[in-house]
Amino acid sequence: MDNHIPLRIHCRCFAEKVHPWIQNRLFTPYWRFYWNPTRGGFLRCDGEEMELDRDHFAVIAGYTRFDTFARAPFEQFYIHFNPDDKLPAPARKITLFPADPVLIARIGRFREAFSRPDAAIECDLLAHAILCEALLQMPGFSLRIPKQPDARIEKALRYLEIHLSDAPGNLEIAAAIGMNRNHFIRLFTAEMKESPQLYSRRKRVERACELLHFSDRSIDQIAEATGFRDRYYFTRVFSAMLRIPPGTFRKLRAHSNGELAP
After folding, report:
1. Percent of the chain at pLDDT above 70?
2. Structural domains in the chain?
3. Cβ within 8 Å of residue 73, ≥6 positions away
């Protein structure tokens, strides 16, 4: 059996004095987990306004368009992450559910450790423990994979993950897993509900989002790292998928106090 971690954490943080927290029409492939011990932070999605507070956890699914704003400075524990691609999306784009006192205590431990330079591993372990337990408690989020994927498609997915910067064609992927090209395309599309090249392009754009948001690499470097032939083609594909160009997406990470946007 392959070892498999169903969650990928991109960023975990305890932020203080967040204000004004203006992020309009956010639309990213990664998910967000929020817990605000103090009031003042708000989400807006599909015309509905939601205040974040200490009594509730909030989980925002990937590819959800929403706004954030603040009416007063607040504190926030947040995690940016992605669950396994095979898990079905929750019924609600934004889910608020009761905050577990045990997890709140763990967040308190995280907050104390976060201020220490030597506690990075402890913070990573705490973030995974908090997020895993919170998702187990989250209503409307199924942790059951609807169907066990074909072993050959699993192998193809691993191959694509390893070769994100190469952008392999269908013939190359099929050869790597020992299949005929046409048979591979039909099977992959049936299993994943999108063609191999659409899936590859989506995963490369998702990786580009991570690099734009969590690194200081140039757009040219990110285009090369994610298998696009130049920044112009990268910009065209990225803009078509996320409806904003990479440069604008990168600006989403900055807010008034110059820190990474939660």
Report:
1. 95
2. 7-137 (2.60.120.280), 151-251 (1.10.10.60)
3. 17, 18, 19, 40
